[in-house]
């Protein structure tokens, strides 16, 4: 079995690690676009063009499913990716976990914050998500200036500064934070710590990695088997070129987990 993941950068690590934990025997293909990142400032057509190039590079390795582990690409390019690749290759998009967070908030009366890039916060896309899945919950958008770029760089000082700034913009009584960018899951512990304050253990975090992993396995017609032998290989593609995990990836537990797999350079 082989699962491919794509993103502009290392935001795909969280979902890739989730797949690795669920199926240690699965081969993984990680297709990113260091030549073209960041995708966020590009217009929709340009994002789609870059996403298609990334997806085609991954598809050439004949995976059983492709995870679009990028919120920006899922918003702008998912229809084009599915039109070109499905039904031969199932394509799984990434959507911020607004629905489960809002459902929990309605039950408890708590507030929800959505941490997302400035371009996503307040966008028609995020507004539609809240209108469709918010279920009347009190939801606040928090623009996280520079956080995705800081995580991509692996620079500890930049990450700390960006997390702190976003935490300061987050209402004090928020009980759940939706991580609206796949990069943010890589620093979940730091986000929770920054928000701890008088909240005890801090708010719950809602990411998307576990959900997209589960959906990818379903679409590939396989079940989770965390007890399987850890024999899965790893192929890394940078803008279509075979490469190795970038050094910044090893800053994160997810990257180090993936680095434990035998890397394919052929």
Automatic annotation (TrEMBL):
InterPro entries: Asp/Glu/hydantoin_racemase (IPR015942), Asp/Glu_race (IPR001920), Asp/Glu_racemase_AS_1 (IPR018187). Keywords: Isomerase. Pfam families: Asp_Glu_race. This is Aspartate/glutamate racemase family protein. It comes from Streptomyces smyrnaeus.
């Amino acid at each position: 079995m082989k699962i491919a993941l794509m993103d502009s950068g290392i935001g795909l690590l969280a979902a890739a690690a989730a797949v690795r934990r669920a199926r240690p025997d699965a081969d993984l293909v990680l297709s990113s676009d260091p030549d073209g990142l960041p995708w966020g400032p590009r217009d929709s057509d340009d994002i789609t063009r870059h996403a298609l190039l990334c997806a085609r590079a991954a598809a050439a390795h004949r995976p059983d499913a492709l995870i679009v582990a990028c919120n920006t690409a899922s918003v702008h390019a998912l229809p084009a990716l599915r039109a070109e690749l499905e039904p031969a290759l199932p394509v799984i998009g990434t959507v911020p976990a607004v629905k489960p967070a809002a459902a929990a908030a309605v039950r408890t009366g708590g507030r929800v914050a959505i941490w997302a890039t400035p371009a996503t916060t307040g966008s028609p896309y995020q507004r539609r998500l809240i209108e469709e899945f918010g279920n009347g919950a009190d939801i606040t958008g928090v623009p996280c200036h520079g956080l995705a770029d800081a995580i991509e760089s692996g620079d500890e000082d930049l990450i700390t500064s960006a997390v702190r700034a976003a935490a300061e913009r987050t209402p004090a009584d928020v009980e759940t934070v939706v991580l609206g960018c796949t990069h943010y899951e890589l620093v979940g512990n730091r986000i929770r710590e920054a928000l701890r304050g008088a909240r005890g253990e801090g708010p719950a975090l809602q990411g998307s990695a576990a959900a997209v992993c589960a959906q990818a396995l379903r679409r590939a017609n396989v079940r989770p088997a965390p007890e399987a032998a850890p024999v899965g290989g790893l192929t890394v593609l940078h803008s279509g070129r075979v490469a190795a995990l970038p050094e910044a990836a090893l800053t994160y537990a997810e990257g180090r987990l993936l680095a434990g797999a035998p890397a394919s350079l052929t």
